[in-house]
Amino acid sequence: MGQRTELARKLRREPTPAELRFWEILYTFRQSGWHFRRQVPVGPYIVDFACKRAKLAFEIDGDSHYSDAGLAADAVRTAYIEERGYRVVRFTNLDVLGNPEGVYLLVADALKSAPPNLPLKRGRNRLDER
């Protein structure tokens, strides 16, 4: 098994408080039939949460994302993920922990504006198209 897959598993086992809260926020959407995955490998990156059907990738950003280097790295990462057909939606840890209702509404809006439901390609189970 690859290092990236092992890292994704480790991140799923050890979520941050904001990631735990975001997973709780997604619960209602999961009850409505939306399917989300946590810590999804996408090429060289790992996306915090993804909804393949809606072509959405959700990132929960901590303090390290707001340095010049962090912002530059996020721009490259976002471009890579968007090139694969996904819309990247970012929330800060503060957003998720301090305003969960607002985050819920933004997720609902993102799901409403998602592309129509298309059948999945046979045998595909990851975001990264090789």
Automatic annotation (TrEMBL):
Which InterPro entries does the annotation name?
DUF559, Endonuclease_DUF559_bact, Restrct_endonuc-II-like
Residue stretches making up the DUF559 domain: 4-109
Domain of life according to the entry: Bacteria
**Gene3D superfamilies per record:** VSR Endonuclease
Q: What's the protein name? A: DUF559 domain-containing protein
